Amino acid sequence: MRLDMARKKKYYVVWNGVHPGVYESWNECKQQIAGYPGAKYKAFQSLAEAEEAFTEGFGEHISVKKSVRPTSYNQEGIIWQSISVDAACSGNPGIMEYRGVDTKLKTELFRKGPFRRGTNNIGEFLALVHALALLQKENKLAMPIYSDSRTAMAWVRNKNVKTTLKRDRINSAMFELVDRALLWLKSNSYRNPIIKWDTKSWGEIPADFGRK
Question: How far apart are CA 5 and CA 51, in angstroms?
Fold first, then answer.
């Protein structure tokens, strides 16, 4: 028996690549990752295992070295009496969660997730609306909210979520929150300034999950 025939078939998961997904051959996988910056992929012994791993995100299956961050920033101009929001997603789509913190103290004010088969943009959007609703409930109608996502800020401003992610039974709970967030935006007005966090000057946003 030839050696290549005796080898057990493998399935390849591409989390970060040209077209993320599950592939049945190394050649197909290689086409998705060759020259792609920050490609994330791994081989599995069965199709079921590969599909589950793809849904869970690469953070559950491969270790990622943390990048070295600058130790000092000029944080002049930050409005410390504010809320900062952020989201984290292992894969795209993948396991997603979001949270909001006190910008100065970094005390966690809310946290939601994890949600299966989500995206970072959806998490950032949900975090912003959650913060707006919280501040309205607490009658803090002028307190600023910081976000490092221009996409999420635009979705809130336009009251429209422009995601290509499809709704399915796995991520239905997350999309129900999206529906509720859009309804809140269309049913309420707010004065809280939503400000772009200047990561280059100030470092990571205080709500960052520290998984980069």
Answer: 24
- State the first-to-last Cα distance of the chain, in angstroms, to the nearest integer: 46
pLDDT in tens for each of the 212 residues of the chain? 444 444 578 899 887 888 888 899 998 988 988 888 778 899 988 888 888 887 777 777 776 554 444 456 778 889 999 999 999 998 888 999 999 999 999 999 999 989 999 999 999 999 999 999 999 999 999 999 999 999 999 999 999 999 999 999 999 999 999 999 999 999 999 999 999 999 988 999 999 988 65
Distance CA 206, CA 103 (A): 6
Q: What are phi and psi of 189, to 5 degrees?
A: -110, 160
What tokens were used for 77? 């101009």
Q: Please state the pTM of the whole predicted model.
A: 0.67
Going by the DSSP 8-state scheme, the letter that residue 9 receives in this structure is: P
Report the phi/psi class of residue 113: left, alpha or beta, with left for phi > 0 and alpha for psi in -120 to 50. left
> Looking at this protein, which amino acid is placed at residue 25?
S
